[in-house]
Amino acid sequence: MLAERAFDVLLLCKQRFPEDTPAARSAGTPYLGIRIFRKRSRPNCMKITGINVLGPKHGYLSFVEIHTDEGLTGIGATDAPWCIVSALVEHGSISLRSLLIGENPCEPRRLWKKMFEKWQARRGRGAEGGLAVNAMAALDMALWDLAGKAQGKTVCELLGGAVQPQVMAYASASLFEVLTDGSWKKKTSEELVRECRAFVGQGFKAIKSGWGNCFAPEDDDNLAAMREAIGPSIRLMVDFGCPAYWTEGWNAASAIRAARMLEKHGVYFLEEAMRPDDVEGFSELSKAVDVKIATGESLTTVYQFDPFIERRALDIVQPDAQQIGITQFDEVQRKAGAAGMLCVPHGPWTAMTVASHLHLLASAPNGDMVEYPGMTSFEYDPKLHREVSLNNFKIVEYPPQLKDGYLQLSSRPGLGVGNLVHEAIRELDEIYPRT
Ligand SMILES: [Mg+2]
């Protein structure tokens, strides 16, 4: 009798406060006492009901939306073509959709394991870090976003809470202009100095220049001019962009010689000095030079990071949530921290990724800096500038906020960026016409 009465009261409450759903809570709708009951019970019975794969149809970037029976949507992004991610999600006897529909989105670590193991069982397809892992990364990012929205918590809170309320962002810039015929033109020393001064004026405390190949003798003068322009207190970093891809015979000895040229300019870290899988080479390099050695943008599981961490082959790990997902990133970051390494993620190319990196780094003591697009560096190319602008500032309702060079943690649930703005995706489609 008492139980029936209690049930009647709950039904009455449900009818009187139909707006009290996780969707309404994440939108900030006021609630009354019934929330206490629902907050504990609803996330456990929430179900995934649909997955959308969106993105520019002819670009190299995909977005996902995961929908639930509670009306909530989680969002994610990955560096992989829309047609590939769509195929992996939609088709086949072990489509990623089939592995997630009906599941509780509040268990992202279990669901990443489920997706990964099913694909690993297919003789390693995806497990070696292929495009299937990229598709899983987007879904994993969306699951963490959903788990936060469902429980009224930020991703940082789900990861254990903030150890720092804001995280330094560095301006990611390019040494090159890409010309209309696809060739690269190195920016002049004056252009680089102008960019550096603009970044400092915008509040950045750190700047990275992407060299895109190896460090040539004339670059020594460019770097000296950049250091003089920004002064000694601004961090300056250099990304070699894996010269081993471009130069036959490039090895650890070559990288050591180049890294020693950077030391006198007070370079904070040197990124991707060798092939992404060269554990022995990186180990040799990091022991030989004073500049911090960083890499990791091409590694897509914690298993690929393990040898670098176990050998103490790096000073800084650079996972990318847009390649690896939040679950794997968190494992890499924490293992690296225990081995005395900093974490500076790779990838400033979508608002969802920058937000993921902000939450991940805010939750870990070794979270050092987040890569952020240095828009001034892309002004030579209106098309590229528009693309980066759409992906970072228009693609979501609430892009991450930068204040005086630091990214600010939002109190909005999940990644704190709201939902995807489909109009921005339609605009991206115009940038990537079918060729
Ligand atoms: Mg890089």
Keywords, separated by commas or semicolons:
435 residues, alpha/beta, Enolase-like, domain 1, TIM Barrel, 2 domains, 10-stranded mixed sheet, 3-stranded antiparallel sheet, 17 helices, 45% helix, globular, disordered N terminus, binds magnesium ion
**Which ligands, by name, code or SMILES, are bound?**
magnesium ion
CATH domain class name of the largest domain = Alpha Beta
Q: How far do the termini sit from each other?
A: 71 Å
Tell me the count of domains.
Answer: 2
Portion of residues within helices: 40-55%
Task: Kindly report the CATH topology of the largest domain.
Answer: TIM Barrel
| CATH hierarchy: architecture of the largest domain | Alpha-Beta Barrel
Can you identify the CATH superfamily of the largest domain? Enolase-like C-terminal domain
Number of strands: 15
Global shape: globular
Estimate the mean pLDDT confidence: 88
> C-alpha Rg, in Å?
23 Å
How is the main sheet built?
A: 10 strands, mixed
Structural class: alpha/beta
Number of helical stretches of at least 4 residues: 17
Low-confidence stretches: 1-5, 7-25, 27-41
Strand percentage lies at: 15-25%
Overview of the structural elements:
It is a single chain. 45% of the residues lie in helices and 16% in strands. The chain contains 17 helices and 15 strands. Strand 2 (62-68) and strand 3 form a beta hairpin. It has two domains: 48-152, Enolase-like, N-terminal domain (Enolase-like, domain 1); 157-431, TIM Barrel (Alpha-Beta Barrel). Mean pLDDT is 88; it is low at 1-5, 7-25 and 27-41. By secondary structure, it is an alpha/beta fold. It is globular. The longest helix has 21 residues, at 131-151.
